[in-house]
UniProtKB/TrEMBL annotation:
Gene this chain is encoded by: mntH
Organism: Pandoraea captiosa
Keyword Repressor (UniProt): no
Cellular component aspect of the GO annotation: plasma membrane
Protein name as it appears in the record: Divalent metal cation transporter MntH
Protein function: H(+)-stimulated, divalent metal cation uptake system.
UniProt similarity note: Belongs to the NRAMP family.
Location(s) in or outside the cell: Cell membrane; Membrane
Length: 440
């Protein structure tokens, strides 16, 4: 009697699936994993460093609640962007081009370009500071070298997207290791840190604190990351072998886990930045520490280890190099989506880096290190001001039954997304009002 090693289901034997045609669960998961890693990179760029260090040094753990709320906003918005790209087969830029008038779509593209240049500016400045701290290079030389390093990182794409994602993940782990070691040396007040997770009204009432809060928001919820995430999942959706409801449900579940884990890790890095600044600088009375150079100089004596400053610089350089990839890829997909114009990554990097190099060289040439942090924080505020022009179309598309069908977002999630959009607009409005009335 012939035996069977597959289960009996109901009244009949069910033949086992062909192992050659059955994708294993790990393979299905890996097909949609990795996009979150690239997106998380954008949440750990040098702009985050500037806002977190300034906020932690000046206000202690108070702004930790802003980091948490911004991360929660980012998680929902990035998940919506990924969902829209996967379900519709079009990314956010392509949908904006088809759903809005040409004038409106061109305006949205222009605003997105401003955000990408602002982000690229932060990456160049941050990488230049890291190179100066590690090798003693002048800032102008560091700016030029940082521009060249962008092409080296993008060159990994020639060996395949997975190689690029692997290199990015390795640099993220290097950054995490550096911060874990520094936090161990700093020995923060974890009770005070936990208390800092509670939102406080003074954050909105005080102009200086609001300026940094909006900067943290812009550094955490980046508009061009929404475009990039939708494009990455659009491309992964195109590679799906079947588009049945079951396959789509599995893809969406995997994407949700990938996004949650990646951005959760990014939150830990950003929180560690602010906690480190609060524990080392604010606690010791150095509340005016804002520049990355000053932070580097003070870490070693305050923590009692010369390795602290080196780990700080290494992590900063790793974040700057990683963020280069995100900004360039985002610029490529937005240009292709809005203008239906495709460019090679190195060409796109040449344009964005060229536009960002000019103000970067002017700032470091005339203002020196003293102006770099102000420029970094200002670039993140610019990102925050551009954010509503990406978020509002995204939420609208995600809840559109015509575009999304049975996969459209509804109920509590849709309401939460609209509340986030309203909150972002309101925060930006308060910031602009304070600036116009001279309260900033």
């Amino acid at each position: 009697m012939q035996t069977r090693d597959y289960p009996l289901v109901g009244p009949e034997w069910v033949p086992p699936p062909d192992p050659q045609n059955r994708p294993r669960r790990a393979q299905r998961w890996m097909g949609f994993a990795g996009a979150g890693t690239l997106i998380a990179v954008g949440y750990m760029d040098p702009g985050n460093w500037a806002t977190a260090i300034a906020g932690g040094a000046r206000y202690g753990y108070t702004l930790l609640s802003v980091v948490l709320l911004s991360s929660v906003m980012a998680l929902l918005l990035q998940w919506l962007a990924a969902r829209v790209g996967l379900v519709t087969g079009r990314d956010l830029a392509q949908l904006s081009r088809t759903q809005y008038s040409r004038r409106t779509s061109l305006a949205l593209w222009g605003l997105c370009e401003i955000a990408i240049i602002a982000c690229d500016l932060a990456e160049i400045i941050g990488s230049a500071v890291a190179l100066q701290l590690l090798f003693g290079l002048s800032l102008p030389v560091g700016v030029l070298l940082a521009g060249a390093l962008a092409f080296a990182m993008l060159g990994l794409q020639g060996f395949g997207q997975r190689r690029l994602e692997g290199a990015v993940a390795a640099l993220i782990l290097l950054t995490a290791g550096c911060f874990a070691a520094q936090l161990a040396l700093a020995n923060p007040d974890w009770g005070a840190a936990a208390s800092g997770l509670r939102p406080r009204g003074e954050i909105v009432a005080q102009a200086g604190m609001l300026w940094l809060a909006v900067g943290i928001l812009g550094a955490t919820v980046m508009p061009h990351n929404l475009y990039l995430h939708s494009a990455l999942l659009r491309m992964r959706g195109e590679a799906m072998t079947e588009h049945t409801p079951a396959a789509m449900k599995q893809a969406l579940r995997t994407t949700q886990w990938d996004t949650t884990l990646s951005l959760g890790f990014a939150f830990l890095i950003n929180a560690a930045l602010l906690i480190l600044a609060a524990a080392v600088f604010h606690a010791s009375g150095n509340t005016s520490v804002e520049s990355l150079g000053d932070a580097h100089k003070l870490l070693a004596p305050l923590l009692g280890s010369h390795w602290a400053g080196m780990m700080f610089a290494i992590a900063l350089l790793a974040c700057g190099l990683n963020s280069t990839v995100t900004a360039t890829l985002a610029g490529q997909v937005t240009m292709e989506g809005f203008l239906n114009l495709r460019m090679k990554p190195w060409q796109r990097a040449l344009i964005t880096r060229g536009l960002a190099l000019i103000p970067a060289l002017l700032i470091v040439g005339h203002g020196g290190e003293a102006q770099t942090t102000n420029l970094l924080i200002f670039s993140q505020v610019v990102l925050s001001l551009q954010l509503p022009f990406a978020v509002i179309p995204l939420v609208r598309f995600a809840g559109d039954a015509t575009l999304m069908g049975q996969w459209r977002v509804r109920g509590v999630l849709l309401s939460a997304a609209w509340l986030i959009a309203i909150a972002i607009v309101a925060l930006n409005g308060v910031l602009l009002w304070q600036a116009m009335t001279g309260q900033g």
